[in-house]
Each structure stands twice: as structure tokens, then as C-alpha cells.
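Anyone? Bumping this.
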Amino acid sequence: MTKIHHDVDTALSSVKNGHTLMVGGFGLIGAPLTLIDGLTKKDVSGLTVISNNLGEPGKGLGTLLSQKKIKKAIGSYFTSNREVGDAYQRGEIELELLPQGTLSESMRAGGAGIGGYYTKTGVGTDLAKGKEEREINGQTYLFEPAIRADVALIKAWKADTLGNLIYYKTARNFNPLMATAADIVIVEVEEIVEPGELSPEEIVTPHLFVDGIFLARKRLTKEGVIDHE
Amino acid sequence: MTKIHHDVDTALSSVKNGHTLMVGGFGLIGAPLTLIDGLTKKDVSGLTVISNNLGEPGKGLGTLLSQKKIKKAIGSYFTSNREVGDAYQRGEIELELLPQGTLSESMRAGGAGIGGYYTKTGVGTDLAKGKEEREINGQTYLFEPAIRADVALIKAWKADTLGNLIYYKTARNFNPLMATAADIVIVEVEEIVEPGELSPEEIVTPHLFVDGIFLARKRLTKEGVIDHE
Amino acid sequence: MSDKNQLQELIAKRAAQELTGSCVVNLGIGIPTLVAKFIEDPTVYFHTENGLLGVADVEEDQIDPNLVNAGKMPVGETVGASFFNSAESFAMIRGGHVDVAILGVLQVDQTGQIANWAVPGKNIMGVGGAMDLLVGAKKVIVTTTHTSKDGKSKLLKKCTFPITSTRSVDMIITELAVFEITDNQLRLIELMPDVTIEEVREKTEADFIE
Amino acid sequence: MSDKNQLQELIAKRAAQELTGSCVVNLGIGIPTLVAKFIEDPTVYFHTENGLLGVADVEEDQIDPNLVNAGKMPVGETVGASFFNSAESFAMIRGGHVDVAILGVLQVDQTGQIANWAVPGKNIMGVGGAMDLLVGAKKVIVTTTHTSKDGKSKLLKKCTFPITSTRSVDMIITELAVFEITDNQLRLIELMPDVTIEEVREKTEADFIE
């Protein structure tokens, strides 16, 4: 059974109302732009979105926010989209802010069967409020629970038809982590190749993590996001 | 200042009495055989050795055991060397047995600034004795602390002169983890290349983890361990 | 082939029938390792916890001393294989990314709990990946001879050796029969060729539903 | 170049003098980013938390939209660079593998605690990697203008904005002076060119040892 989806609706068919989604990318870099665009056209609501940021006003995940499809966002840097603050003030969205290292580590934990872990990051700050502290070897740590999602929408550079993935430069970021931490993982790629074309030593995400592969129709270029077929 | 050591004594100069050492390898596969051999010839004692197993009788880390240089061993599978059990019975060595996933995860935690973490592995078994349990989302987990070492002796396939590393097939195993989790990391390699020869996308261990590089003089072949210059 | 080998292959061959369609499988040492030779479906992918997804057979003249499985036996790699470190490998296991684990046991009891890592009175010297596979694999299949060398049932009312996990396995395959475990109860679902229910009853200490 | 830019470059240039010999350095957004242009030593390696060790300048015509620093600005890569995922990147930071972090601040107090991620009364919308760098980097250097736009000292007796960490930074570099922090006390170690001690006293709310 092939993992390859040929249209965006099929690729997104596992996304349901009320789902928790992980969406890859550091801003637009390494974000699954075609899948995000597909989400803005899909009739879905009450989403919890886990992503470093919520795009820009009216761009990427920012569109989903404008459409009020997002009930809650978990991320580290919402500052990139001023509409997030406005929506929060109006009580339209719930926000959970995590340090970037904690956000990425919690995803890794979620994918690795780790229930939670202790980090020094954030101890004594406002982001530690309500969090359990613990002394380990004389140092204070915070407990952070693992996070998982129903569906992860990620971006890779190349997939082979089995679902093995490699990434491109700093577009890697959160994508390999999200690939491990969701029940269903859909990856948007620039190129689909045959098994054997990716070196076994350089595969970053082995195919057992990947459920669906979709060829990108939008790409980030120096001139911005462009469509192509 | 070059990281390259030309003789084994210099490469091992940071190993002191009473140190905790991580030693890479899954049995002999991916073990730093030249550095281990150097240890057997070095006047050092009271070591704590963290390694999946303790070699075989009179081979690799097994030699260190025979020489009574090891005070304590932390690993997942000592069965491969029956002399470990004998030494334990005679009270010559302290043993800490961890599930293999816990051993590797604790190293990763140690290298990643994580104080400890919760795993389901081992819950309700003899290896859970004395360990803290915690319920997370209705499931029972065990607390496992991070582990670190004073020195890690690891094996890689190729290093560039900066210390970037790539590994060879299943000889990778614990080596990249140990590279992150010790104060001093010395790597034994098959080949030293110039910066730029290893692809930035396929480097497994970035150079900031590596303190010393040493060219292997012993290699594992189909015919066993052989010396070469 | 010796009788023992024949029994082991019989068990392995039956276990292989459980691996249908695309799945990721981790094979333990012993009988489980034999399962691979009965699999022809290229979408059954073998994972070994020392860091390889895509284990294949290897010809004698192709042996690479640095390419082995968790039993340290030489193996090959499939087209589309990938290598990773031990923490990543066990993250796959604990994180629920391995579909099936096939494991040998010293004992299995009538609730489906197994003991396969330690014998009382002997030094507890090795556990390897057994405990991780038990908590992480979606489905666990036990392959074992029905009785130990001294003729005693390995299917017990209660394990007397230290258990590997509180998790019950999903299926037990022996040279005599196949059992499924649901709600912590063994249910006989199949007799192996030429085996009678009487023989299974006689050689099984564990209670089971027929 | 505007006066503001000149001040920023002055500060960045002074900070660059702290990076001697082989070290791994993470640069924050703003003045810290400018530090790189004053470094000629090829053994000073720049780490960016979005997943690159070996950040280099990039020429306008070489810009790759998928190769950026943590401020989302286009960068290049050095020979010997490597890419990794966000969890690996922060493992490097938290795990103590980054030697120096150079950060901007909103406020720094006389114990060396800084505030650089949130302003009271405004939505707390972003923290990024600031808290991780504070707990993980072996040495933290603050680069900041001495006063805010309205002329108030950024070096305070106590931060009034939410702190980024309980850890004290190691050094503060402004256009007026350089301070070292030991035992949670600021010590003036250097006046910038053409600056008098009186001016520093006048513009600094924090207590410091001269």
C-alpha cells in the first residue's frame, strides 16, 4: 500500500475537528506550506496547534487563526504574528508558551515513550508558575510532561517511497521531532525518490515514523512563497 | 590547537584513578579497541565503567576487569562475559544493571542537560526496586536519573580535523550518545579527513562534542581484531 | 536437521504467518531470529535494537563484522534501510513505533506475563532490550518450545522467575499450539499439525480456555 | 552610519574581543548578531539554535531562503558546518556544550539577573531560546545600550520586568563601560573610549564596584 497522496484533501483526511496538530517549521522555514494552505480550505475547527509560532498575519498558520479554527496554540514565539495577541485579548484563543528547548524536548519525549522529564530551563521565572520543582544533585529542575499530537504535518526535503526522509539545512528544525510524536504523520516533500537513493547512514527520519507523503506545490524562495506544479 | 593525538598514552592522559568512563560499543562492534587496549596498559584503578557490556573474558574491557581496575560497572548485558559474575560473587565489583533503552536514554539525558526522566520500562520488575514510581496520564512510570562520565572513549568511522564525526553501520550504537555525556570525549577513528569532506547534513556528532581524535591501530575484521599501522 | 531444529523451525514458520502486510518487527534471539527466513513479503521490515531498520540475511562471503543484529550475529541490510544510535532505536521501541516483537521466554504464565531475562539464584547479569520491547511493541508474540529440557511446562500458572514486564503478551506459539491472550487469559486458538488437545492439556500447567 | 548603528557596532566590537581561541558561541538577535563581523579567528564557531553549527556571513546573491539564523535572517555555512534538529540543538545548549552566549536585554540588575523576553502589561507572547541559553551556556555576555530610548538606565537595582533566569550573567558590555559579575555583584572593569567614570555613575541605577 503506497504512502503517497496525490491531492491535498486526501493527505489531510486524517485531520478532524478538535484534533491536536503538530505543524513543522521555524516560521515559514521548513513549514509544510501546501498542507497548511490545504488546512485553511478544509472545514475543520477546534484545533490545538503545536508549532514554534503561528505564522504571520494572514500567512501560513496565521490564516487558520484568522479563520478561528484554532482553539489553542502551544509554541515558543508567537510574537511573529501580532494577531495572536489580539485574538488572545478577545478570548478567542488559549495560549501555552514554552521555552523553545522545552517545546522541542517535550516533542522528543512524546515520540520516545518518555512520560516527562526535568529541565533547568525556566526555573524561577514566570513560565515556571504551577510547575513542579525537584532538586537533582543539588540543582533545581522543573518537571515538563511529554507532548504528542493526533496528526503531525511536517516538511522534509526528500522522501523515498517507503517514507524515509532527509531534510534541507535549517529547514530541518522541529520536523524530525514531530515525525515521532503524532499518531499520524503526513510529510510534504520537494522530491520523491526510489528506496536506495537515500544513504542508510544519512536518513534522518526512518520510514516507520511516516504515514503519508505528499509532493509540495508551494515553495519558499528568495521571492517568497510561490506555487508550482 | 589540534585535537589529534598521535599516541595512545596522550589520548588517554585525561583518564585518572577513580574516574567514571563511558566506553562505546555493542560488544566489540563499535568499541574503541585501541583505546581500550591502552587502558589495559595504563596504571589506573578504581574506575566506574559505563558500557553496554564488559567485553569477553580477557578481551577488550574484560581485560580491565581481570586486572581489577574496575570498581563498578553500569550496563545492560554483562552476560557476554562470565568473569563478571565471578568477580561480582567475590565482591570485587559493584554492578548496576539497566534495561538497554534506559541505559542509552540516561546517557542522552546526561548530555542534554536533562536531570532525569520517566520511562515505563521496568515498571513492576526486579529492576524497579528502590526506584520512584509516578503516574502520568493513568500510566505508571519509573524515574531514571541522567548519567554522565568524566571521560568518554568512543569509536567513530571518520572524523574531520575539527572533530565532526560519522559512524559505520551498526558500529554507531552508543557512541554518539556517549560523545555528548562526558566532560572529556576522546574518539578513535578509522580515518581522519579535512573539514568539508563530511557533508553538513550527514554529520552525526558535531565537533563541539569532541575533545580528542585518535587514529585506530586495531580493527575488527571477519577474522577478529587485528593490529595495523 | 535435528529434531530440536525442526521444532524451532515449525514454531518460527507459524509465527511468520502472523506478519502480514506492512509492519515493523523486532526479533529476539533464538527461535524468533528464525522467523525472518519464512517471510517473503518485502513490506515486513525488521528492526534490530542495536540500530538498524531493514535487517536482511547475509551471505557468508558478504559478512561485515560491523553489521550485526542484537544477538551480535552478522546480518545484511535491505534497500531502504537506515542506521541510528541506541537511544533513537529504543525511542522507536518505547514510543510505540514497532508493530510486533517476537520474543523467546523462559516462562510465560496464564495471565500472559513472561520471564525471559533472569533465573533466581543465578547472578542477574543481563537484560538487554527485553523490558523495553515488552512495554513498547504494539503486539508481542512469544515463540517457545512448550516444555523445558527436563520436560516441564514453560506455560505456568504463575512465573517463578523474575518477570520482564507487567504487560501481558498477545500470543504464544509453541510446537504444540497457539494461544491468544485477552483480558489476561490464555485461549487456545490452534493446535499444531498432528497434535491432540489431550497432549496440550497434559503438557500445560497454565489454565487456558479451549 | 547612524549614531545608533555606531553605538551598536562599538559594543559588538568590544564583545568580539572576548571571543579568543577555539570556542562555540551563540549570538542573540540585535547587537549580538553584529559581533560576528568583528571575528577573524576561524576557530570561533557560531551556533544558532534553529539547528546549525558553523554560521557564516552570506552574500546577497548567495541567499538561500532555507538557511537562516534564529532571527530568521539569511546566513551562510562554514566549511565543517553541521545541521541538526531543534531538540539536538537545545540539547547542546542545555547540556553545557555552548561556550558563550551573547544576548541583548531589556534590563539587567546589579546581581546580574536579566530580563529580555517579556514586558509587564503586554501579552507574554514569545520566549524562544532565551531561557535555555541562560541556563546552559558556560559564559553569558550581555550586550546592550546603557540606557533605554527615554534615557533611563537599563542597569537596574532590580529587574522590574520578568526575569529570564535566576542565573547571573558573566559580563555586561555597553557603549559606556564593561562590567564583570562575580558573586552576584557588578564590577566596572573598563570604560569605553572617551567615557568618564562620572558619566557611568550618572547613567547607572545599579550599584557597582568601581
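Late reply, but here is one note on the structure posted above: The helical segments of chain C are 3-16, 31-34, 86-94, 130-136, 197-203.
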